[in-house]
Amino acid sequence: MAISQNLQQRLMQKLSPQQIQLMKLLQVPTANLEERIREEMEENPALELVDENYKSTDESKDEFDDDATSESETKSEDYENINVSDYLNDGDDDVADYKLKDVNYGNEEEKKAVPLKNESSFFENLQDQLIGLQLNENEQKIAEQIIGSIDEDGYLRRETTSIVDDLAFRQNVIVSALEIETMLKKIQQFDPPGIGARNLQECLLLQLYRQRNEGKNVQMAIIALTKYFEEFIKKHYSKIQQGLNLSDNDLKELIQQIIHLNPKPAGDLAEINKAEKYVIPDFFIINNGGELELTLNNRNAPELRIGQGYREMLVEYDRGAKKDKRQKEAVLFIKQKIDSAKWFIDAIKQRQHTLLSTMNAIMKHQQDFFLTGDQTTLRPMILKNIAEKIGMDISTISRVANSKFVQTEFGTFLLKFFFSESLSTESGEEVSTREVKKILSDIIEEENKTNPHSDEVLTELLQQKGYNIARRTVAKYREQLNISVARLRKEL
């Protein structure tokens, strides 16, 4: 077999460690930024927080050397040629000067702590109710496994056989499917009513069983959901009326009895838990006499600098006459940590700059909305539009848009909200699809609920308003708005 050599030239794009670090930081929301900075400080002792009274002596100087060497690029021969002069000359300019001075919070407001609710979680609430059952050790494990398998809506969507397997493989507890079912029946008596149901029908029936002694309407509702559940969810009320021989008034009372039940029994408790997860906006936009002002929320971004102790260690090394291998290894470690700290400070600065540039471009593009709050004024805008305006990659804009929030006088919005495709009107004008969805939503909201509009009628109404749109597109937008078809919107 002949051996040959070929010379090939390939163009490859490889991200530097700094770029990778920046991409990761862009995805970190403001609420978690301080935690991320703390993690970096724990890993790299060369980083430290700037004192409140600290002032940079030379803010104009660039504190990041082009010759910084990564740990992965350090070679053994570097021991013989360690130059610490660059590091010794670096002064107080190694400060992460990324905090905006005009954040719209005063000093007094900065000091206020955000109160958090001291509420039990949904699962803790169920665990507390287990105490009243007086279970043995084996039963306790079964009950806890069932509760752990209940989702945030309050449903048990895991099969009984799967729970049996979970107990056997994870906890070495051998039980039968009957034991699981028996324990589930007990848990289904917990509050809130309907908890632990396997499906919507069982969930509603569990709630009605608790109300059995509250009159004939409850008994009739139980019968209706037992025999005519499919007809009920499809709103085929005439079949229920005929099957149960109900008058028009009895049918209305039956429907009212059922629709007042809770299809998501854990909904209230889940909302309590979500209430603790406040959305912390990344940007603030205020209307100052017709002029929009944008500020970046830096409350969770403490200022950083290179630790003075690490500089002093380099000074001691530089003053020493004799430098053995051990000392060189130590100073090389210090150099690597300082390089890493500089990269991180630079990445934080670039993160703030990228966020501000992106949001500023979005604000200018959607200026009418930020001035009025009217969704119909939103202009078509895609990631490419913003990327071209600020000279950045589309993937960078996507990372910002998918995870950041802006607070306005009209509410707090995910940046992704402002992006939409375009649609042509009869006059040839390009409008945002979000504008069309808003008008579609308004039409449906104002319709006669006893005779709701079909998709064909909705299409005609939109076309009358000048929007050139097909019926299948109307159906798609309706589904994206989580609005049911006309038959399911009908009310008696």
Structure description:
This protein has 492 residues and is α+β, with helices and mostly antiparallel strands. Helices cover 50% and strands 7% of the residues. It is built from 23 helices and 8 strands. The chain has helices at 17-26, 30-43, 85-89, 107-111, 122-130, 137-148, 160-171, 177-187, 200-209, 216-227, 229-233, 237-244, 248-259, 267-275, 308-319, 325-365, 367-372, 383-390, 394-401, 433-446, 455-464, 471-480, 486-489; strands at residues 47-49, 283-288, 291-296, 304-306, 405-408, 411-414, 422-424, 430-432. The radius of gyration is 32 Å and the shape is extended. It starts with 16 loop residues before the first helix and ends with a helix.
Could you provide a short overview of the structure?
The protein is of the alpha+beta class. It has helices at residues 17-26, 30-43, 85-89, 107-111, 122-130, 137-148, 160-171, 177-187, 200-209, 216-227, 229-233, 237-244, 248-259, 267-275, 308-319, 325-365, 367-372, 383-390, 394-401, 433-446, 455-464, 471-480, 486-489, and strands at residues 47-49, 283-288, 291-296, 304-306, 405-408, 411-414, 422-424, 430-432. Among the domains are: 122-270, no CATH class; 421-492, Homeodomain-like (Arc Repressor Mutant, subunit A), CATH 1.10.10.
